[in-house]
Amino acid sequence: MMATELSVAGVPPSLSAKVVGSFAYFTVKDRFPTIVTKVIDTIHRNKNKFFEEYGEDGIQAEKQTISFLSKLRNELQTDKPLLALTDGLQDVESWNQYLQRHQRLEGDQESVSWFKSPWLYVECYMYRRIQEAFWLNPPISGYDPFNEGKTQGFFESQQAVMALCTYLEGVKKCMDELSKNQLLEHFNKLLLVSLWGNKCDLSISAGQENSQKINPLEVLNSLQPFILVDESNMVWSTLISAQKQEQPGKATPCRVDIVLDNAGFELVSDLVLADFLVSSGLACKIHFHGKCMPWFVSDVTANDFQWTIRQTMAANHKWMSKSGVQWQRYVKEGVWCYHDHPFWTQPHEFCDMAAEAPDLYTTLQRADLVLFKGDLNYRKLTGDRAWDHTVSFDTALRGFGPAPLCILRTLKANIQVGLQQGQGEKLSSEDPDWMTRGKYAVIQFYSPLSEQFN
Ligand SMILES: O=P(O)(O)OC[C@@]1(O)O[C@H](CO)[C@@H](O)[C@@H]1O
Ligand SMILES: [Mn+2]
């Protein structure tokens, strides 16, 4: 079950900061310390709030958390070995076993370190250590240091959110009269808005910027040339064929699972897509999957999910609040549900999900379609490995395929599979940073039921 063997035949090595000058190297060297420093600043700025809420205990916890985080920053900047977790949360054992497996594989403990180990592993570990710093310091254990940035991202995207909700409510009004082609057109648009919504994450900019300022629907055409692979037609046929299979005895006909990425505008774009899927009858049930702790700066937690729906409901804009009220109703009625399995905040590649989190794998198997959002999910789907660009998406998945699945991702890490011969080279010569600036995107699809499409 070792997740990162470098020796598996035909499987390239994991991306790592040990390649000096690589994107992983710069991320660990520059972006990690910046993120930890921002967390420290945020806690410090909120000192008075902790005092008001918890008195002297709050101040003590603030000091102690900052000291843990400064230690963490020092460890990563000086390439110290990774340490076992000590906070007693439910996932500690699994994290520590993962560390031991790496140590065994490397032959010594020193070699499992920030700059020598797989980038995916150390990046997830950093966020888990931030969580540990809080958890070990009640009464502020539940504090989300990224909350301010996430809520700001939402408020700064208000115009775009209003435009999107107005569009959604317009479509819903005439849903019964839409031809299949018109329905497909709206589906494509909302899928694209959700795709480009992934430009809005806070981790890539180390917390600088994650809002959508312009009407997303108006820029879709101009963004079309930047979609490197577009298999959205397979997503549509999956939804249509799932409907055909609908039987009276089947408990949950056409269920779509959405593995969320970022809060703020991206989450709204996902909720709008989910609303469209349900109100058009393309799906009957949506299961959302989020994170159970603050993660990669802007990722959605249960709190962000509920907060976003409440804020949308409370908006002083007719169509926005109408959308929010509907979303709340979906949640109440169980048409929408939110889950946060600990696997999503572990460092595993998704090909290890069946072994590491069989219950989650079984859950996803019940879906007719799983939509994965964002760059981190792409990295985990493909194992964050140095694949050749022309390797097929299903090869890179290495057997992961609980259900037909699609990834909607803007490129923010130097990994990309499923391209045409020469396409990667051409992009590299035109724009050396094509894989890391969120300028390009992919919609890639895989189905374990592929015979259905042959
Ligand atoms: O998953 P997301 O939100 O699209 O992106 C997360 C991300 O910004 O975090 C990492 C940066 O350290 C990159 O791999 C990736 O681009
Ligand atoms: Mn993210």
Automatic annotation (TrEMBL):
BP GO annotations: DNA damage response; methylation
UniProt keyword terms in alphabetical order: Hydrolase, Manganese, Metal-binding, Methyltransferase, Nickel, S-adenosyl-L-methionine, Transferase
GO MF terms held by the record: metal ion binding; phosphatase activity; protein carboxyl O-methyltransferase activity
Highest taxon above the source species: Eukaryota
Reaction equation(s) it catalyzes: L-glutamyl-[protein] + S-adenosyl-L-methionine = [protein]-L-glutamate 5-O-methyl ester + S-adenosyl-L-homocysteine; beta-D-fructose 1-phosphate + H2O = D-fructose + phosphate; beta-D-fructose 6-phosphate = dihydroxyacetone + D-glyceraldehyde 3-phosphate
Record-stated family: Belongs to the damage-control phosphatase family. Sugar phosphate phosphatase III subfamily.
Entry's free-text remark on domains: Subfamily III proteins have a conserved RTxK motif about 40-50 residues from the C-terminus; the threonine may be replaced by serine or cysteine.
Annotated protein name in UniProt: Sugar phosphate phosphatase
Native species: Channa argus
Origin organism lineage: Eukaryota, Metazoa, Chordata, Craniata, Vertebrata
